[in-house]
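User: I've been trying to design a sequence by hand for this structure and keep getting stuck. Would you show me what you'd pick, starting by listing the structure so we're on the same page?

Assistant: Good idea, let's start from the same input. This is the structure you sent:
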């Protein structure tokens, strides 16, 4: 990143933070971690209706659409952790296996790089552990 771009980026970030403070001062200390827990995992039938064949009958099923989304979020550097966690949970609910999720993430290392793959795998392992706890009835 060159100096001119760095200055522009810093200015844009400062303006965005100032705008957030102006709209809602509470956003100044807002943390996105854990936000994904506020959204429940949709049942498989609902996932198929919204993301599967109901609106695109000749296209991809919900599981495939969600795996493609996991791939895209991985290539983006897994920066959107709440979105990644929610998408992985939904992919599992739509019938994807843990192995399929991991394979998609591994494949994206060629496009997003190893750090992006590692971060995405850490997020996925965390979701796998959470969903295993939910299935056994252990409160987390």
């Amino acid at each position: 990143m060159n100096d001119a771009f760095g200055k522009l980026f810093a200015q844009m970030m400062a303006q965005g933070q100032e705008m957030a403070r102006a709209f809602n001062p509470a956003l100044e200390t807002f943390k996105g971690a854990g936000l994904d827990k506020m959204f429940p995992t949709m049942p498989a039938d609902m996932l198929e209706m919204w993301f599967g064949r109901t609106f695109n009958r000749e296209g991809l099923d919900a599981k495939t659409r969600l795996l493609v989304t996991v791939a895209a979020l991985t290539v983006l550097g897994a920066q959107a952790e709440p979105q990644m966690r929610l998408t992985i949970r939904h992919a599992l609910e739509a019938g994807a296996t843990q192995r399929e999720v991991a394979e998609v993430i591994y494949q994206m290392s060629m496009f997003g790089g190893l750090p992006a793959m590692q971060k995405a795998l850490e997020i996925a392992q965390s979701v796998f552990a959470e969903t295993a706890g939910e299935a056994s009835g252990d409160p987390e």
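That's my pick for every position. To get oriented when you compare it with your attempt: The chain has a mean pLDDT of 77. The CA atoms of residues 6 and 12 lie 10 Å apart.
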